[in-house]
Amino acid sequence: xxKIFTNDIKKVDxxxxxxxxxxxxxxxxxxxxxxxxxxxxxxxxAGGQIYRAPPNEFQPQNSFKSDEFREGEKQxxxxxxxxxxxxxxxxxxxxxxxxxxxxxGPNGLSSWHARSLIIANGALERIIPFPGWTIxxxxxxxxxxxxxxxxxxxxxxxxxxxxCGPLLIAVANGIIKSGGKVSAIIDLNSKSDWxxxxxxxxxxxxxxxxxxxxFANIMKAGIKxxxxxxxxxxxxxxxxxxxxxxxxxxxxxxxxxxxxxIVEGDCLAIGHGLFPSTEITRLLKAKxxxxxxxxxxxxxxxxxxxSSIPGVYIAGDATGISGAFSAVQKGRIAGMAAVRDLNxxxxxxxxxxxxxxxxxxxxxxxFGKAAVRLMKFRxxxxxxxxxxxxxxxxxxxxxxxxxxxxxxxxRDLNQLKAWTRCGMGPCxxxxxxxxxxxxxxxxxxxxxxxxQWTGRTPLxxxxxxxxxxxxxxxxxxxxxxxxL
Amino acid sequence: xxxxxxxxxxGGVMGCSTVLHLSRNQMRTIIIDxxxxxSEASGTNAGTLTLNMTRAALIPYAIKGxxxxxxxxxxxxxxxxxxxxxxxxxxxxxxxxxxxFKRIEARQAMGAPIKFxxxxxxxxxxxxxxxxxxxxxxxxxxxxxxxxxxxxAFRRALKQENVSVRExxxxxxxxxxxxxxxxxxxxxxxxxxxxxxxxxGVWLEExxxxxxxxxxxxxxxxxxxxxxxxPTVMKTVLSIANGLLSLKQFDNGTVLIGGGxxxxxxxxxxxxxxxxxxLIGNIRLACHVIPKLCYGRMIRVWLGxxxxxxxxxxxxxxxxxxxxxxxxxxxxxxxxxxxxxxWLLSQLIMEQEPEMPLFDPNRLINK
Lengths: 484, 367
Hints:
The complex is a heterodimer. Chain A is of the alpha/beta class.
């Protein structure tokens, strides 16, 4: 029989999933301590979403290099000059309970058997649907940052930037700085929400200053800012998006649906905050808790970032949204905890080293927590999902179908999926889970009661051609005959 | 205190069909499940309604089941997307051809309308087939349902018949009292019923244990793989001679690959994970049969549990030594014949002569 994998399963001390700030920090610290480390990412280089690198052909001139770009370069250089194995363009499609990590990369399938695993797969963007959210020209805030940062492309000629949190300001500023036009900013947060966040933001004055300078750019450009407003509808009329907005209260409830205003642009960049990515921890059946101040469902971890699964650690935003700065400390602590548990590092050394990390983490986390408050999910925002709105866009499942299923007795998320096909498409619920969970939770009482979708492989769709490789009929290990 | 004529423990196809017929005959009934109705094997199986993979002894039952699934409007609320298509079981080697021929004869003898056809003829019925196919077993009583819709359909039917449905309620034990069974839940609540039906799939061994009846039930962990929507690559239900493949494309373009390849799991933890060799082997076999399948993407793999007795035949009938207690389960390809099996058991419970013989559990009691 031909080998099923292009390579044998390679044994290694530590596998780190995700090469964003947390993953890179974890991998580096563990490798420096002498552990054999492999870091895997589906992108072509390190940096994660925040420090995403442009393609090689697109490298900017020095004068165009942003702080983020420079930070990303620093991390990429760190990896290059280390002893660890970095696998880019490798998609992890399976992680087994004995910590075998299966990937599909440019050379087909490969697998790694890890003694310990650090999951640093970051966050996903929450978008609460509204009529028109699936029409061309409507994109996520996170997607806009990818266009701006790595492709140097403006999301539109004239962009309406909507949603909440730091990304809102970052995208608006990014567009202005790149010479584009922002036609309006629609912020779920009101002025008083921002004022409340101010004291915590002071824990990182440098970042606060940066944010304020972005804000100043926005003001200077004379952009109309609607605080405490949500997008309720978007229609396309002759290549122009007509975007209806309405004032909301702090829970996200629309205050005055009759008093809607219209703003216009050819692109709507919208995002309602980030939530931790739990596909891998759900697959491993790790324990999770729902914590709105961490962005939503998070795997349960101890002080050293150990999950409920032996040998599995979580780092970065995957443990709860708190941003890129604290992700570095989370990564370093998880990395050190992993090598200590592997007896590569002594407990004494660990204790000594961890102290300073914790101090920095606390400071950065304070800043991150303020940012997370500004992105906190507002349960009543699901009002914008009218009956005729598509919720699951892979399978075209409408809100009315979700409501009907709940009405006829669906009580948990997996049942809702079976009855409506929501979450069954290629994205496997990454895009719609937040909205659908929130709708169900509003009926059954809580997110905990609504539950989570069962995690399954593959974590990403895998081309069948790559799975099967070259083979003959004799190579197929057909099991014994079924009974007659 | 609620009292029922019949309480069914286990809300899969077997339990749901049984209780549905009982309530239509004026019995006061309740069905209990630790999760949602039809959320285990009954909702996660491949939905195949084929005679080409059915055990010869069960062919007459499977034909009845096939008819019921094709006429859901007559007995079930709303459909489960049943499609009637041709079924082919294929042989690619000389040995497989021999096996195929033997199996066709055995199934024909039990009344299955299966015919032996050439590879060329099989390709006319299924143009997507690999050229190397030598011969096939062809059956026009074949097809599939969308298994995950089963719970929804049964739930509505049961509600319409005023069956009490108690989901997410784990039963801990059953005590026998004078004239009644006392069903005690995990949260210490309880209810009483004159008769009980145990229909707990792979968990039947533990359930029978409540009544001190010992029957070994093996738990198979069947792997299923689904692709993303793709252009039409096939239009029949396909299997291979030895029964280790089931392959079909749904109306929405997704292709489901199954066949009973095993994964890791057990009764306690359920399906835990697939075995890479089996995952890749199963997909290779599917792509060998329908070469164009390789252009699709795999989007989800899951594991469904299947119960099997020592002789791989069902247990349907009275629980030995205990009056008014019944059991139903361990039917090979049980989803397909399930609605009929449930109807047969309801006949027994209503003290009628079942239309076809049942499967006395007594033969399997560990004495």
